[in-house]
């Protein structure tokens, strides 16, 4: 009994000593372990310690999406937009949350306009979500560079095509593209791991 009490005291102390940095690390680790709800809990713990960090915390938006809190995800991405105004990925994830919570048509009406994101193939990804480009346009745009750069462009293209097709209810094409992003063009950066987490959570 005394040992148990000591362990409880140690656990309580360690939780009390958690820093914003350790909470962030835990949130990321939980997400990469395909545990989005636990990831959200960690990011929320971070915000209790550092409320002003919220606009920067796009990672929390991804975790909210996969945890099924699309309203919360939308709000997080809208908040992030005030911090980072030229990121197509933020607009895309905002679209995805609105599409899940309401409809694709509603998501298109509030698609965040983006200027100046020069990353390949982000321009075409934004146009795709705006219904002004085709999946083929995204794939064609990704075929630039060589070596690791080309692989990265393809990873991003298939990641966002997979997300797009899932948002419009075409799960077969969503799976096809997401599996390519997670395996054929696997990358170890955050968004590359998003594809891997997506595949795991969907059982693909």
Account of the 3D structure:
The chain is mostly helical and 204 residues long. The protein has 2 domains: 18-117, Tetratricopeptide repeat domain (Serine Threonine Protein Phosphatase 5, Tetratricopeptide repeat, Alpha Horseshoe), CATH 1.25.40; 119-204, no CATH class. Helices cover 72% and strands 0% of the residues. The protein is built from 12 helices and no strands.
Write the layout of secondary structure elements.
Elements: H1 2-16, H2 20-32, H3 36-49, H4 58-66, H5 70-81, H6 88-101, H7 104-109, H8 122-129, H9 135-142, H10 147-167, H11 171-184, H12 190-202
Helix pairs in contact: 2-3, 3-4, 4-5, 4-6, 5-6, 6-8, 6-10, 8-9, 8-10, 9-10, 10-11, 10-12, 11-12
Number of domains: 2
Instruction: Report the uncertain regions.
Output: 1-16
Mean pLDDT rating: 93
CATH superfamily of the largest domain: Tetratricopeptide repeat domain
> Termini distance?
46 Å
Main beta-sheet annotation: none
Helicity level, as a percent range? Answer: over 70%
Instruction: Give the helix tally.
Output: 12
Name the beta content range: under 5%
- Count of DSSP strands: 0
Question: What series of H and E elements makes up the topology?
Answer: HHHHHHHHHHHH
CATH top-level class of the largest domain: Mainly Alpha
Which descriptor suits the 3D outline? globular
Structural class: mainly alpha
Which architecture of the largest domain per CATH?
Alpha Horseshoe
Rg, rounded, reads 18 Å
What fold name stands as the CATH topology of the largest domain?
A: Serine Threonine Protein Phosphatase 5, Tetratricopeptide repeat
